[in-house]
């Protein structure tokens, strides 16, 4: 399953960047929308590939990854 990188705002107004396994970009968007996230921005595949290379799969880290972490 492809990995998508997206940035979204949670119900508390906190903006964060997340990696999500999804069938396609629409599925990735819907997964976060259904959890109450808003202002969802899907990043292109190049960004997802770069993020995957920089950050090995780590579920604890993925839940808390922010844009600052990626700078």
Helix content range: 40-55%
**Number of domains in the coordinates?**
1
> Strand share of the residues?
25-35%
Low-pLDDT segments: none
Distance between the termini: 26 Å
Q: Calculate Rg over CA atoms.
A: 11 Å
Give the total of beta strands. 3
* Largest sheet properties: 3 strands, antiparallel
Which of globular, elongated, flat, extended, rod-shaped describes the shape? globular
Q: Helical region count?
A: 4
What would the average pLDDT be, to the nearest integer?
A: 77
Side-by-side strand order of the widest sheet: 2-1-3
N-to-C SSE series? Answer: EEHEHHH
Given the helix and strand composition, which structural class is it? alpha+beta
Describe the structure.
With 71 residues, the protein is of the alpha+beta class. It contains 4 helices and 3 strands; from the N terminus they run E-E-H-E-H-H-H. The protein has one domain (3-70). It is 41% helix and 27% strand. Strands 2-1-3 form a 3-stranded antiparallel sheet. The termini are far apart. The mean pLDDT is 77.
